[in-house]
């Protein structure tokens, strides 16, 4: 019923490759404190892999993945951002114009949850008003060292109208599910014909003029 | 015959962590073999006449560790004849000398015994295997007990003991040399029981002798030796002598001056580390030899399977921990001797003033040269000479490093290239690397992800060192902050100077201002913007077609190149590639990275030209295999063929270009073929906004004139006829701006004469300069002419260099 297809077929992304079914393209951004597992979540979702020693992300990384829902093909263009606070000023370049965001925290670290809340606030204030935000409490395989209670995060998510799941990139728990939940919640009316990646930049001003590292 | 053997290997298994246990951070526990590898690096640095030099620690399959070390002669245990007292004093003196060095360095031997004290026919003594206890973290990382029971001190048996336990063992060994083997044929536990009963004795040495019915022999021992033995065999560790005292006492007793050993000349006179390295290059294989001599035995896996595995992880039965295999396999250097037998003796002593020879291997790629025995032989000897003369040979080292750097001395050469000098140890020692700071959390989460495929960097030892280095650098550079990526940048220096943190630190400290000036400022946006803009201009200059394409699809370097430059590619490539990139970087200077970026683009060029925005960004998020040798070569070519002022950056630590003409005139380049002159009046610096919007770099007038003098450029003057006639650059052609029809797409539309000149210029690979008095029009014309060139070269894009 629901399957995940690897987005390796490059021609499928070509503007001229007219798709048969309805194709929706969405820009999704991952935000959160460093070392909470943003890159690991994406890697698990896109390639089904997990690296214990996933290296830190500098600037941002870009990956795509296609989900097949019943009648639509949803293609995610995923921007995986750097977590370190110093790279904060780069973030707007990536979340501006995004239709979805996953804000990630580490359930074994209360501070990362606080940082996640700040990201949600910033998105609510500055990102597109219709953005779908999901909150992911990652590293649920380390439940023994839990510092953030599920109920606490769930309550926060309900208050702010966020999707919420506890995930584990290591065990793959809820990883596909959270992306699916986002795909289901996104409006499918707008059918784009590819090349939406360029929109990233159009929306983010001329990149040259946009802020770089600060 | 025995002197033929130069080094030996022994092997053992490190402890296996039970099941799939994870540390508190959710990461797997560091394998014991990695910990051993990290700790043993320090041992590799020890050089002392009475200690066998450690040459290599190899990590094999299934937590196997192979230790390679120097050997001489044979072990005391193998000598069957009794030693004279004179000989005993000689042996004891040298052992004490070696032990003193170990204890000075806080290394406890713990396994001192008669089978790891080596003696050769010249009376030289060297300790072997002295690092077991240290490298295995006091035996915690191995499944077997360390040491021989009969040399255990009482406190060591009950699980305690520090350095003074070694003094006890030393005493037992001398006693054995005097009165014969002790507790012979006794099993470990009775032996240890016997030792423990000594605690009530006032004079354990005498009591041991009595127990062995050797009291008479004991009484015969000369007073001074007996004194030494009794000072060692004290029950209370605090009462025992130290090796410092023992050594000075023994030295005064030692009548035998070590027989003058003539320094060996030729191959065998070379540094042992070099010999081992060349031996490996010549095909020497430690593991294969160990298998041959039966020290590594492969048993069928079924035999090592556990009998039962419990649900929560632990296993029962199967292969149980064996005792430490004390056998060693000795190796001779015949293989290497044969390989290098044709080399004339004089070549072992290269003279500095002689012009270096050209070797056949020089034409081969670096990676192959690094594996060539003979080539490395010559290079290493040569570099050894040069490094010996540093800093006076700095220039010479630089010009040799331009060819290549032998991997074995890369750390030394890099330090020389970076101008590291002076008492770096004391300086580093004084820096507070321990006090917690608020950056610690970030450093702590980054280090376990930094180049962790590298065995050195992934162990606890590596993590500790990297953290100290980062903290030291941040503390001594208060103007800078920790940006993620600084860890990756530090890693290559640590990797090459694993046991010399001070030098790693000194290298990093010298590297940053040279290559990454101001990159680690809290607000580095201007610096990075300028760098990326320059990179884009260099790419456009050398790869105009590609640059236009990327420009068209709105693909900007901000999206992918920040980690490239912020970390000088150390976050992008694995260490074995970084070292080659940086070899070139350190020699060529701070402009090279811009061209390295361009060279990477060039390698991906065909794919990029065929790709849209998404494919391009995907390509950079998961960078395909890059041929680093090619990339280095191309980038150096580009760097050298680009006039210096083109890659000029404001944020640099380089001495400013003292060129009066720069102040008044800049010429804007478009690409290899097309440039534009704009005469700026009263303008010293280009404002940032302008720079960021320029596709092409600017050139200083002097660089421009030198191009004209060398007939390397073709100038198109687009001012009006009138102005052109008044004054113009010799040889320039005039295409008045007003005469250019923007709608036209044919180069011919510019007129027959300009067409001819331009085609000719393009053929000759000349740089085409568009000269005008104002900015805007030149911009338009450059776009136009660029279009023409594009059309002209549609069919043969390879012409864009």
From TrEMBL, chain A:
Keyword terms, alphabetized: Endosome, GTP-binding, Hydrolase, Lipoprotein, Nucleotide-binding, Prenylation, Protein transport, Transport
A Pfam family it matches: Ras
Compartments, record wording: Early endosome
GO biological process, one term: protein transport
GO molecular function terms noted in the UniProt entry: G protein activity; GTP binding
Xref: PROSITE patterns: RAB, RAS, RHO
Xref: InterPro entries: P-loop_NTPase (IPR027417), Small_GTP-bd (IPR005225), Small_GTPase (IPR001806)
SMART domains, alphabetized: RAB (SM00175), RAN (SM00176), RAS (SM00173), RHO (SM00174)
Enzymatic reactions: GTP + H2O = GDP + phosphate + H(+)
GO cellular component: early endosome
Tree of life domain: Eukaryota
EC number: 3.6.5.2
PANTHER family listed in its UniProt record: PTHR47978
Family, as annotated: Belongs to the small GTPase superfamily. Rab family.
Protein name in the entry: small monomeric GTPase
Organism, as annotated: Danaus chrysippus
Taxonomic classification: Eukaryota, Metazoa, Ecdysozoa, Arthropoda, Hexapoda
TrEMBL record, chain B:
Residue ranges of domain Protein kinase in the record: 1-250
Gene3D superfamilies linked to this entry: putative rabgap domain of human tbc1 domain family member 14 like domains (1.10.8.270), Rhodanese-like domain (3.40.250.10), Transferase(Phosphotransferase) domain 1 (1.10.510.10), Ypt/Rab-GAP domain of gyp1p, domain 3 (1.10.472.80)
Top-level taxon: Eukaryota
Name of this protein: (African queen) hypothetical protein
Keyword match Transferase: no
GO molecular function: ATP binding; GTPase activator activity; protein kinase activity
Keywords, comma-separated and alphabetical: GTPase activation
Species this chain originates from: Danaus chrysippus (African queen)
Ranges where the Rhodanese domain occurs: 709-738
Keyword Translocase: no
Sequence ranges assigned to domain Rab-GAP TBC in this UniProt record: 404-589
């Amino acid at each position: 019923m629901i399957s995940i297809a690897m987005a390796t077929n490059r021609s499928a992304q070509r503007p001229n490759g007219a798709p048969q079914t309805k194709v929706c393209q969405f820009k999704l951004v991952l935000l959160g404190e460093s070392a909470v597992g943003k890159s690991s979540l994406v890697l698990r979702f896109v390639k089904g892999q997990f690296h214990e020693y996933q290296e830190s992300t500098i600037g941002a990384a870009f990956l795509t993945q296609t989900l097949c829902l019943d009648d639509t093909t949803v293609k995610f263009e995923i921007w995986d951002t750097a977590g370190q606070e110093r790279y904060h000023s780069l973030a707007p370049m990536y979340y501006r114009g995004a239709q979805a965001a996953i804000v990630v925290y580490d359930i074994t670290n209360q501070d990362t949850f606080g940082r996640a809340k700040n990201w949600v606030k910033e998105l609510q204030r500055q990102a597109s008003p219709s953005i779908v935000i999901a909150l992911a409490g990652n590293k649920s395989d380390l439940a023994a060292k839990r510092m953030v209670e599920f109920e606490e995060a769930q309550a926060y998510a309900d208050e702010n109208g966020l999707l919420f799941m506890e995930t584990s990139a290591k065990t793959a728990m809820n990883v596909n599910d959270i992306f699916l939940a986002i795909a289901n919640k996104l409006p499918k009316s707008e059918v784009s014909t590819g090349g939406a990646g360029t929109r990233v930049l159009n929306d983010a001003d001329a990149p040259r003029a946009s802020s770089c590292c600060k | 015959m025995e002197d033929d053997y130069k080094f030996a290997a022994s092997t053992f298994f490190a402890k296996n962590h039970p099941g799939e246990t994870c540390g508190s951070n959710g990461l797997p526990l560091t394998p014991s073999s990695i910990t051993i590898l990290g700790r043993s690096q320090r041992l590799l640095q020890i050089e002392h006449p009475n200690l066998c030099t450690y040459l290599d620690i190899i990590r094999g399959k299934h937590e196997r560790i192979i230790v390679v070390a120097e050997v001489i002669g044979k072990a005391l245990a193998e000598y069957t004849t009794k030693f004279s007292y004179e000989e005993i004093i000689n042996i004891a003196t040298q052992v004490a000398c070696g032990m003193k060095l170990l204890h000075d360095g806080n290394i406890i031997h713990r396994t001192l015994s008669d089978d790891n004290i080596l003696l050769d026919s010249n009376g030289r003594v060297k300790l072997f295997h002295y690092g077991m206890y240290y490298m295995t973290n006091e035996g915690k990382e191995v499944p077997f007990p360390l040491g021989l029971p009969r040399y255990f001190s009482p406190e060591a048996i009950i699980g305690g003991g520090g350095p003074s336990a070694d003094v006890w063992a030393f005493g037992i060994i001398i006693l054995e040399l005097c009165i014969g083997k002790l507790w012979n044929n006794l099993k470990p536990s009775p032996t240890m029981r016997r030792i423990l009963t000594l605690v009530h004795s006032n004079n354990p040495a005498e009591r041991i002798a009595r127990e062995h019915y050797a009291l008479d022999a004991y009484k015969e021992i000369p007073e001074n030796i007996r004194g030494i033995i009794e000072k060692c065999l004290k029950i209370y560790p605090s009462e025992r002598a130290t090796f410092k005292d023992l050594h000075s006492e023994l030295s005064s007793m030692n009548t035998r001056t070590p027989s003058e050993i003539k320094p060996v000349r030729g191959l065998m006179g070379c540094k042992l580390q070099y010999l081992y390295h060349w031996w490996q290059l010549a095909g020497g294989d430690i593991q294969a030899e160990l298998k041959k001599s039966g020290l590594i035995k492969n048993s069928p896996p079924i035999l090592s399977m556990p009998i039962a595995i419990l649900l929560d992880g632990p296993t029962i039965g199967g292969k149980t921990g064996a005792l430490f295999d004390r056998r060693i396999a000795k190796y001779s250097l015949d293989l290497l001797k044969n390989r290098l037998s044709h080399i004339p003796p004089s070549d072992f002593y290269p003279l500095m003033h002689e012009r270096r020879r050209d070797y056949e291997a020089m034409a081969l790629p670096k990676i192959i040269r690094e594996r060539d025995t003979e080539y490395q032989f010559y290079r290493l000897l040569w570099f050894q000479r040069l490094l010996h003369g540093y800093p006076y040979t700095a220039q010479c080292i630089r010009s040799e490093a331009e060819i290549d750097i032998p991997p074995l001395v890369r750390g030394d050469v890099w330090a020389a290239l970076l101008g590291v000098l002076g008492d770096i140890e004391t300086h580093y020692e004084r820096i507070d690397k321990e006090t917690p700071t608020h950056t610690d959390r970030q450093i702590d989460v980054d280090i376990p992800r930094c180049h962790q495929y590298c065995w050195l960097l992934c162990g606890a030892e590596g993590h500790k060192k990297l953290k100290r280095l980062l903290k030291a650098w941040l503390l001594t550079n208060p103007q800078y902050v920790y940006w993620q990526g600084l860890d990756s940048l530090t890693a290559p220096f640590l990797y090459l100077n694993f046991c010399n943190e001070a030098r790693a630190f000194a290298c990093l400290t010298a590297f940053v201002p040279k290559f990454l000036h101001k990159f680690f400022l809290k607000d580095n946006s201007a610096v990075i913007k300028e760098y990326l803009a320059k990179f884009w201009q260099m790419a456009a200059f050398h790869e105009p077609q590609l640059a236009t394409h990327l420009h068209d699809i709105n693909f900007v370097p901000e999206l992918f190149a920040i980690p490239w430059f912020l970390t000088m590619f150390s976050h992008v490539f694995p260490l074995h590639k970084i070292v080659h990139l940086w070899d070139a970087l350190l020699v060529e200077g701070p402009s090279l990275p811009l061209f390295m970026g361009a060279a990477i683009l060039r390698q991906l060029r065909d794919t990029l030209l065929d790709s849209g925005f998404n494919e391009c960004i995907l390509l950079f998020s998961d960078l395909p295999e890059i041929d680093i040798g090619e990339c280095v070569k191309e980038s150096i070519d580009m760097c050298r063929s680009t006039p210096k002022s083109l890659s000029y950056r404001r944020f640099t630590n380089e001495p400013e270009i003292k060129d009066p003409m720069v102040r008044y005139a800049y010429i804007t380049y478009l690409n290899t073929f097309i440039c534009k002159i704009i005469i700026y009046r009263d303008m010293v610096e280009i404002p940032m906004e302008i720079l960021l919007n320029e596709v092409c770099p600017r050139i200083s007038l002097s660089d421009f004139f030198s191009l004209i003098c060398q007939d390397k450029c073709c100038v198109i003057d687009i001012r009006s006829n009138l102005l052109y006639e008044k004054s113009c650059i010799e040889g320039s052609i005039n295409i008045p701006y007003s005469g250019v029809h923007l709608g036209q797409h044919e180069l011919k539309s510019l007129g027959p004469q300009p067409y001819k000149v331009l085609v000719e210029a393009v053929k000759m690979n000349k740089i085409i300069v568009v000269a005008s008095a104002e900015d805007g029009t030149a911009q338009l014309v450059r776009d136009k002419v660029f279009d023409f060139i594009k059309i002209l070269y549609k069919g043969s894009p390879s012409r864009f260099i």
